[in-house]
């Protein structure tokens, strides 16, 4: 499928990625540069990382949200928050409590019990859990299990 790269807007043939090969390579190089810097300066904050590596704040925050990078220092604006309840979480997109709630709600819907107010319809629950499973490598898209 032809797609525009989310970073450089170049047209490329996608096999599921939202970035072209060149931008994926650049992303990997940025992450490696940050990791090399953090090996020598493990207590560095985000501003020191930006100054030393030249990697943008947005990209660093993206790495933190994806769980590919963790900083020892916590400063405002760098905390990862749950997409459902907005509480701080160490990594990922949804906290364990909300994930458990979503799983229980899906179980009630599958059993024919009336659905709760959190998600609405069974179709939206399935779509949400499917999207969640797609974001987590190694998970079965239908059940969310390994």
Plain-language structure description:
- It is a single chain.
- The chain is mainly alpha-helical.
- The protein contains five helices and four strands, in the order ββαααββαα.
- The strands form two sheets. A two-stranded antiparallel sheet has the order 1-2. Strands 3-4 form a two-stranded antiparallel ribbon.
Query: Helicity level, as a percent range?
Result: 40-55%
Rounded mean pLDDT is 76
Give the topology string: H per helix, E per strand: EEHHHEEHH
Q: Could you tell me how far the N terminus lies from the C terminus, measured between alpha carbons in angstroms?
A: 28 Å
Low-confidence spans: 113-122
Biggest sheet statistics:
2 strands, antiparallel
Radius of gyration: 19 Å
Tell me what portion of residues adopts beta-strand conformation.
5-15%
**Secondary structure tally, helices:** 5
Shape: flat
* Strand numbers in spatial order across the main sheet: 1-2
Beta strands, count: 4
Determine the structural class based on helices, strands and strand pairing. Answer: mainly alpha
Please outline the helices and strands:
Blueprint: E1 2-4, E2 11-13, H1 21-40, H2 46-53, H3 57-66, E3 80-81, E4 88-89, H4 96-110, H5 122-135
Antiparallel strand pairs: 1-2, 3-4
Helix pairs in contact: 4-5
Brief summary of the model shown:
The chain has helices at residues 21-40, 46-53, 57-66, 96-110, 122-135; strands at 2-4, 11-13, 80-81, 88-89.
